[in-house]
Amino acid sequence: MKIYTKSGDHGKTSIIGGERLAKSDPRIHAYGSLDETNAWIGEIISQLADEHLELQKELLQLQVLLFDIGTDLATPEGIRDYIVNQQHLLEVESLIDAYAKKVPLIEKFVLPGGHLLASHFHIARTVTRRAEREITQLVSDGIPINLHAFKVVNRLSDLFFILARYMNFVYDVKEPFYERAGKVFHND
């Protein structure tokens, strides 16, 4: 199998169903950003120590989910059934809840940083937020998309935030806080 097809040499790419779009199309940007998130998750998995085997498995499942979301974004409505559904959303929310219980409550904004793995999760979070903005543009432009996938992307950025905090916690690295804002979260 050849890795290059030359079909994109004129700035176009095919999406599922065969339609050709400019590589600068908002749809292509959205799933391209998710591909970038996926690469960061791969980097994190490669750096996780053996004591984090469960997290490695969870992240590998998230990589598959990110690929599925990208596939759904590359699929115009009506071509085939979407992959991502409500169950995927609930699974991501369950991960958020589980890891949120493992970290201390905060009252201030957290600055990206701390342990190297925490920093990588923050990068994955910000790239995911970019993808969310790009998907929002598709919705604003009236392009039908899988709304379950859209919601999952929103939750994934929240999960990556919690996982960044978790990495700082388990490696006993003091989280950098944004001190100028004062107390912004009220843990009642």
Summarize the structure.
Residues 3-167 form the Cobalamin adenosyltransferase-like domain. With 188 residues, this protein is mainly alpha-helical.
Compile the SSE list and pairings.
Blueprint: E1 12-14, E2 20-22, H1 26-47, H2 53-73, H3 86-100, H4 116-140, H5 147-170
Antiparallel strand pairs: 1-2
Helix pairs in contact: 1-2, 1-4, 2-5, 3-5, 4-5
Keywords: ATP-binding, Cobalamin biosynthesis, Nucleotide-binding, Transferase
GO molecular function, one term: corrinoid adenosyltransferase activity
Protein name: Corrinoid adenosyltransferase
Description:
- This protein has 188 residues and is mainly α.
- Helix content is 57%, strand content 3%.
- It is built from 5 helices and 2 strands.
- It has a two-stranded antiparallel ribbon with strand order 1-2.
- Strand 1 and strand 2 form a beta hairpin.
- Helix 4 packs antiparallel against helix 5.
- The protein is elongated and about 50 Å long.
Question: Number of DSSP strands?
Answer: 2
Q: Radius of gyration from the CA trace?
A: 18 Å
Please state the structural category.
mainly alpha
> Which overall shape is indicated by the principal axes computed on the Cα atoms?
elongated
Helix content: 55-70%
**Uncertain segments:** none
Count of helix runs: 5
Largest sheet: 2 strands, antiparallel
Order of helices and strands: EEHHHHH
Q: Span from first to last CA?
A: 59 Å
Strand percentage lies at: under 5%
- Give the integer mean of the pLDDT values: 88
Biggest sheet: strand arrangement: 1-2
GO molecular function, one term: corrinoid adenosyltransferase activity
InterPro entries: CblAdoTrfase-like, CblAdoTrfase-like_sf, PduO-typ
Pfam family, one: Cob_adeno_trans
Pathway: Cofactor biosynthesis; adenosylcobalamin biosynthesis; adenosylcobalamin from cob(II)yrinate a,c-diamide: step 2/7
